[in-house]
UniProtKB/TrEMBL annotation:
It comes from Streptomyces chromofuscus. InterPro entries: Dimeric_a/b-barrel, Dyp_perox_C, Dyp_perox_N, Dyp_peroxidase, EfeB/EfeN, TAT_signal. This is Deferrochelatase. One of its GO terms (biological process) is iron import into cell. One of its GO terms (molecular function) is heme binding. Residues 64-208 form the Dyp-type peroxidase N-terminal domain. The lineage of its organism: Bacteria, Bacillati, Actinomycetota, Actinomycetes, Kitasatosporales. Keywords: Heme, Iron, Lyase, Metal-binding, Oxidoreductase, Peroxidase, Signal. One of its GO terms (cellular component) is cytosol. It is found in: Cell envelope. Its cofactor is heme b. Belongs to the DyP-type peroxidase family. PROSITE patterns: DYP_PEROXIDASE, TAT. Its main location: other.
Length: 416
């Protein structure tokens, strides 16, 4: 295995993985599982990275990364507005730069120009960078005829207390990684690459449990302590692609959205002081599942099918009629399904010590009207959880399919 001399650790486009000591005959082992990568503590000595740092997700593919990728420990969501005077040409150049930066960083390489070295000692750490277009992007670029009908603004909901300054945007970027420095490094690189083409509209930071923190893989918990995501659609299901991704042909969507998906992003504040005053039983009745293991109140394990008709000795429904898990079930919403891939957030405390914390709700679907909107309308009419949450920001973005080798994300739209 070839090592890199100390006087070559800077410049010449040396990859972060080469910096870490993997090159030459061993090559790079690519793919979702990553490969055997080391770092150079000194030029003549190499120590393998941990499996967490070693994991790599591919940038190129039919779908963009960060959709079906397992949930990551750290995330950043950021929206941009195109700068005054920037149009289709500037947007195309920006997406070309962003895509190249994403490809490099996800491979464990440094950013294109002036890398900050924040992630110098780390492997890719399952980094993903995902790009989407908001409703206003199409007018700004003269592409109104290519704007999907599915991107029409979301309707208002009773739990909305939306801050317009932290909602929507022309462009949206999702960054996820299993290392906080790797995630921040990507955020900074993406922001620097905007140049004069765009400006940050809003940015949010989130987190999840780190891989390996539990004795065995588990469904994530949210800041209410509840297991969250039990009934997520799974790629192994026969109708997964139909529910989550725009088909290659025969869809009402424009051709450039083939292989893409629509993402709804909501900053949902959890009223934790109120929630934590509830007894364990009351909390479980609100959700419809046991807090300890996520099993339905009707019995069984987390994955046991919920018995909506089961009653107790007094004849009361075991799963209350307004329980969140009952109301949000696909079979209670005409089969509506969405792939939830959220991050928790905590942005400090207000003057009274109330935590500004909750969920950066991110959900994916082939059709937001049949997915998020259908379910949220049902929740709006009587979900027991509604009095413990507040929707404070919102966005809907069209996320095109993945980029092929030598292409950039959104090329079929911007150059079609």
């Amino acid at each position: 295995m070839r090592t890199v001399p100390a006087d070559r650790l800077r410049g010449e486009g040396i990859s972060r993985r080469t910096l870490l000591g993997t090159a030459g005959a061993t090559g790079l082992v690519l793919g979702a599982a990553g490969g055997a990568v080391g770092y150079a503590a000194a030029p003549a000595q190499e120590t393998p990275l941990t499996s967490l740092g070693d994991a790599q997700v591919m940038f190129h593919g039919k779908h963009q990364p960060g959709i079906t990728t397992p949930m990551q420990a750290r995330g950043h969501l950021v929206a941009f507005d195109l700068a005054a005077g920037a149009g289709r040409k500037e947007a195309a150049a920006l997406l070309r730069r962003w895509s190249e930066t994403a490809r490099r960083l996800m491979a464990g390489e440094p950013a294109r120009d002036g890398d900050t070295d924040v992630a110098r000692d780390a492997g890719p750490s399952s980094l993903t960078i995902t790009f989407g277009f908001g409703h206003g992007f199409f007018a700004r670029t003269g592409l109104e005829k290519q704007r999907p009908v599915a991107l029409d603004p979301l309707p208002a909901f009773s739990s909305d207390q939306l801050d317009k300054a932290r909602s929507d945007g022309d462009l949206w970027v999702q960054i996820g990684a299993n290392d906080a420095l790797v995630a921040f490094h990507a955020l900074r690189a993406i922001q620097k690459e905007t140049g004069g083409a765009a400006r940050v509209r809003w940015q949010m930071n989130g987190f999840n449990r780190s891989p390996g923190a539990t004795s065995h893989p588990m469904t994530a918990r949210n800041l209410m302590g509840q297991v969250d995501g039990t009934r997520n659609p799974k790629p192994t299901e026969a109708d997964f692609d139909r529910r989550i991704f725009v088909p290659d042909s025969g869809a009402a969507d424009p051709a450039w959205m083939a292989g893409g998906s629509y993402v709804v992003v909501r900053r949902i504040r959890m009223l934790l002081d109120d929630w934590e005053q509830l007894s364990l039983k009351d909390q479980e009745d609100v959700i419809g599942r046991r807090k300890s293991d996520g099993a339905p109140l009707s019995g069984g394990s987390e994955t046991t099918e919920m018995d909506l008709e089961k009653t107790d000795a007094e004849g009361n429904l075991v799963v209350p009629i307004n329980a969140h898990a009952r109301i949000s079930r696909p079979d209670q919403n005409g089969g509506a399904a969405m792939l939830r891939r959220p991050f928790s957030y905590h942005d400090g405390f207000d003057g009274d010590g109330v935590p500004d914390a909750g969920l950066l709700f991110v959900c994916w679907q082939a059709d937001p009207l049949r997915g998020f909107v259908t379910v949220q309308r049902k929740l709006d009419r009587g979900d027991a959880l509604s009095r413990f949450i507040r929707h404070e920001a919102s966005g809907l973005f069209a996320v095109p399919g993945g980029a092929a080798e030598g292409e950039y994300v959104g090329q079929a739209l911007l150059e079609g």
